[in-house]
Amino acid sequence: MSYPIDPLEQLSDQELESLAAYEHPITDRSIQGIQGCFTARIAEGAEAGGTAGVPEITEGAGIAQATKAARITEVVPAPAQDAVAGVAGTAQRRPLKRYLVAAALAAAFVVLVGFTNGSRVYALYYQHFGEGAHIAQYVSEIGQSAHDQGFRMEVLSAVNDGDNTYLFVDVTDEAGGRLSEDAVVNRWNMTGSRPLGGGGTSLVGYDPATETATFAVHSISAKPGDSVLFTLSSFMSGATDYSVLADTIDIAQLLAQQEGSFVTRNAREGTSGGLSPKFHDEGRDLSEIKEVLELDALALAIPGFDKAWISNIAYRDGMLHVQLGRDRDRGNVAVWLGLVQRDTGERLDPYYTIGVGQRNEDGLADHEECVFEVDRDALTDYSFVVEGFYYTQVFDGTWEVGFRVPERMDSLVRQVGADIGIGGKTAVVAEVELSPLGLTLRMQDTYQFKGELNIVAAYRDGSSVTINEGEVNTLFHGEDTFTFIRAILDFESIKHLDINGAIIAL
Prior knowledge:
This protein is mainly β. Helices cover 11% and strands 43% of the residues. The strands form seven sheets. The chain has a six-stranded mixed β-sheet with strand order 2-27-28-24-23-22, with no helix packed on it. A six-stranded antiparallel β-sheet has the order 12-19-20-16-15-14. It has a five-stranded antiparallel β-sheet with strand order 4-5-6-9-8, with helices on one face. β27 and β28 form a beta hairpin. The protein starts with 12 loop residues before the first helix and ends with a strand. The N terminus is likely disordered.
C-alpha cells in the first residue's frame, strides 16, 4: 500500500523544538522561520542524494509552545494473571524511583495552529514514539466527536501495529473551569474482535487556552479492519497530594499488642500491587502470593490523615506486613506506605504491595498490604510515612465514537523456531515480528520461565540498537508473547537479532 509522507516526519527533535518556539498569531517572520527549517532539511536530503517525499510548505502555518515532557515505562500485566489494572495511568503522581508498577506513557505535546489537523496528529505520534517513529503514512484521521455534560471528546486518529491500536483523544471542557493539567482517564473501553482486551492511557498534554486534555490510548482489543466503538466513561482532575509522618505510632509496640493472622488470598478478586526492583529481579510475581493478612482485624487511625488507616499488622519470616484500609470515595486512587528511620531519615519502601479485599467500580482494592524487609528488633527505630494523592473532581458519563481500525502498518514476520536461554532454561521463539513501532516475540509454548530478555537489533551497515532499553515505551508480557513497543528506524534493514546471545537471522 502506498502512503503519503507528512513533512513533520522529516524533522529531528531539535528542529521540532525550534518550530515549537514560534508563538501565534503567525507573522511573516515566523513563516519564514518555519520554511527555513524545512528548507534546511530538504538541503540535507539533496546532499544525500534526493528530496523525494518532502512537500512544499505554504503560508498560514504556526506552532504554539510545547508543554512538559516525560517518559515512563508501562508494564501491562499478563491476562493469565487476572491482573486488575485499576485506574489506568493514575497512580503515577509520586516519582516511582523504586517501583516497577503499572505505569502510563507520557510524552511531549505539540499544538499546531494553522497546519491541518492531520499535521498535528502526525506530530503527536512523532513526539510520542520518538524520532524513529516514521509512521505518519499509516495514520488514519478519525475526527469524530461526542458530547456529554459540557465535555466534548474527539477521537483524532488511529494507527494499527497488528495486535496494538493507538489513538490520540482530545477531551475539551466546553463549559469551562473543570479540567486541569493533571487530568487522567479513569475508565474507558474499546470493543473489537476480541472482547477482553487491555492496554492503557496517558495524558500527553493540556492546553489551558482551550481547556483541552489530549490522551494517548493503547488498546489490544481490536484488529485491522474492525468496526470498533471507543467509549470514555470516567475521567478525573484536580489532584491533591499529601504526605503524613505518623511518628506517634510505635510500630514495635503496636505489633506486640495487635499481631494479626494470615488467611488464604482470594485470587478471584484480581491481582494488583507494586514490585520493588529486588522483588522483580528475583523473578517473583504477585500471583505467587497465596496468603495475606486477615481483613480489618483492627482500625487504627493515622494522626492527621483520613484517607486510610491501619487495619492489620503482623511479622513473619523476616517481613513486616502492614494492611491499610482505604477510603472508598471516588478519586482516592493512590496511597503509599513507607518506613522512615527516625535518626537518619532514611526511607525504606515495601518489598512488594498487593491489593486485597473488594474492588470498587474503578477496579481499586479497598485494602492494600505493604510488606517490608526489616529486622523485627529494628522496628523501634522506624516511623510510618503515608503518601499519595486524590482527585477532587470525578466525571462520569458516556462519550462514544465508532470508527474502523486502519490497515496494519508495514511489518516483517519471520517463522524462526530458535532456542534462547531465559533464566537458565531454554525457550523456543516460534515467530519474530518487526514494525516501525516495535518488536514482538511469540514463544512456542506458554511462557513459564523467569528471567530477563536482552535484545539487540543489528543492521546490515554494522550499526545496532538495543530494543529493550532507552526509548522503550511499553513492555507487554502475554501468556506466550513479548511485545517491546518502541520506535525502530528502518526495520527492513535489520540483519539479525541477538536475544540473550542467540542470533536470529532475519
